[in-house]
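Entry 0007
Protein: Polyprenol-phosphate-mannose--protein mannosyltransferase
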Amino acid sequence: MESCFYSPKAKKTSANPNFFGKPSRSKERGFTKRLKGKWPILILILLSFLTRFWHLESPSQVVFDEVHFGKFVSAYFTHKYYFDIHPPLGKLVIAGFAKIAGFKADFDFSHIGENFDSGSLFGLRFLPALFGSIFVVLIYFLILSLGGSKKAAFFGSFLVLFDNAFLVESKFILLDIFLMFFGFLSLYLFIIAKEKENNSKKQIILYLISAISVALGFSVKWTAFSFLGLIFILIFLDYLRNFKFKPFLAKGLIFTIVPLFVYLSVFAIHFKLLDQSGPGDAFMSPAFQKTLKGNSIGANVKPLSFIAKFAELNLQMYTSSANLKASHPDGSTWYEWPLGKKPIWYWTQSKDNLKANIYLIGNPVIWWFVIVSIPVIILNLSDKRLSRKTIFWIYILLLGFFANILPFVFMKRVVFLYHYLISLVFGILILTLFIDKDFQIPKEKEEKPYKIKKCSEKGKEIKRRDFFTFPSKGSFFLYFGYLTIVFLVFILLLPLSYGIFLPEKINNFYSSFIKFLH
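Output (structure tokens):
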């Protein structure tokens, strides 16, 4: 006998009177209808903004790489040239909003733990928190675009919402949340564009915005080039499916010309704002320095053109990154990341026999489940319950998962746990799509294929994809039981994400756990 566990409301018939004996109002029905099925995404939106913005100005001290990125953001106010191994967009957008928020660039960012007293900390940390909040919602809609159900979309975005590593990356003046947002946004836009009518205005606009988004991603960090690679693979696979050359060429040109134009434009703004000699001069050639006001280069040196400056800076960024020799106690290797090894110590402070710490640490219930699931999923892609569309996207996502780890296998410079976060998102997407089948009622050949008539003796019917409709009590408790454990572990690790002051005994517990992961 099939289960009717947590089935939806009864059929509307004349024998089913209003509960209170009063006629319902049309406005109330309209409002309820608009909210129907929307509560999962509304909960995600509320909790994502709450977790990312709560205590945003705490600690009011410099945390981890804020010591670098804070300096770079300030440089756009002083116009003194700086050098960084990453493209400038992340720092540019933070500086832009900080300007609106009233930041005066009167702070040194000299060391981790330095007290921040300029009153503009909220403005500096606002955009990472905003993008981190929206990123949770983006994952929800991305899963839907991949063919997942609302249960799957809620499941995957819930894991991103309550992973402590994503939370920490969203609360400080850091860049990775920007590149993840723009990268996965470009993938989402490309997927929904594919579903539109070929060569329609909507499709072309979506492809253009997707191309802009992927360019914004690798204008933050080059790691986002992996998304452009995935998109080109999808374009080529579309060509192999129908052998239509003109659409293939058009999409290829869009995702070549538009990203190049955006990337060049970002550097044009960068050079325009940094027009004075500064601490970054030492990394550049005399001809490059000649373009900066207040330089000490002789009159016989000819200044570089914009394109020449662009080429030299990008080459220097690559060379400097490849030649980094510095070590770090929390540096890690790529094969340690899936297990969450080597959490990164971001900040610490002691007062009144209490101590607070901030670590970049993953939620182990998520990280361990994802990495254990990947080989199991690969071996079970022949499961007949998986649709061809789901199998296709799992293969693409697996490609994204491994493509974002592979460069770090050969990288000799020190790397960190946060370099795994893009692959972790791909892993969450893979896991979510694969297990979606286990929480859906199987299709039956009836007159209404998306509604399965059950519990007819009770006068009820079940919709296959209703959020609370599960094939059995067991699947219901597995779904919400796992999410409950994820949430509880998130809460357990919360003091290490927000820097909450704790007594020595409790700190010893957390220290033991950190040592275990090291």
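Curator remark: Residues 1-21, 445-462 have pLDDT under 50 and may be disordered. The two ends are 50 Å apart (CA to CA).
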